[in-house]
Amino acid sequence: MNKQAGAETRERLIEAAAETVRTEGYAGASARTIAKAAGVNSALVFYHFGGVDPLLLAALDRASEQRMTDYRRAVERARTLEELAEIATAIYRADLEAGHITLFSELVGASIARPELRAEIVKRSDPWIDFVEQTLERVIGGSPLARLMPPRDLAYAAITFYLGVNLFTHLDADRSRTDALFTLARRVAPRARLLTVRFPRRGPRARRQDGAPPS
């Protein structure tokens, strides 16, 4: 197998693996099933990736890389919690339609019984926690809300909520209750506006003008 053919086979297997997990779940993602979807011999799963789990992790890496690029671009224009809430809702709906979070959720579920997979999932979750923390730090950093609820803690809460919402979606056939959660977030965000105001720090000049002794 030449280099170009090998690269093409890898791409087909990665795409087939992601689609198989989205439609059949982790339990249905065998080497034979994935290879059949890719139109190749199942032995190539092991030749290129060493097994099914490494292939599924490669598929998760590919999806995460694409989404991270898109979402960084989406949130960079957000300046308020209201705007973040609107963008988060759009991201959730896009992920739901494309099945991105389903891939992650299936692997999280599988990691309960497979400790070696758990460590890999945790490693791949950290960049997303960092991404959410950096976004929140930019939007609310230095505000009373950030002191009350540090961006790192909020990032953990956001990732946990997002994963939980995706799992619950499977029980919410018409998505009405899930959509209601995001509607609630958009209603609450404007009410937290005062807590995100960054008040200027008072320097020596300001303290002298109001009669306070200089530092």
TL;DR of this structure?
The chain is built from eleven helices and no strands.
Question: What order do the helices and strands come in, and which of them pair?
Answer:
Elements: H1 3-24, H2 31-38, H3 43-49, H4 52-75, H5 81-98, H6 100-111, H7 115-140, H8 144-148, H9 151-169, H10 176-191, H11 204-209
Helix pairs in contact: 1-2, 1-3, 1-4, 4-6, 4-7, 5-10, 6-7, 7-9
Which structural category fits the helices and strands?
mainly alpha
Task: State the oligomer.
Answer: single chain
**General form:** elongated
* Intertermini distance: 75 Å
What do these coordinates show?
This is TetR/AcrR family transcriptional regulator. With 215 residues, this protein is mostly helical. Helices cover 76% and strands 0% of the residues. It contains 11 helices and no strands. It has helices spanning 3-24, 31-38, 43-49, 52-75, 81-98, 100-111, 115-140, 144-148, 151-169, 176-191, 204-209. α5 packs antiparallel against α10 (176-191). 20% of the residues are buried.
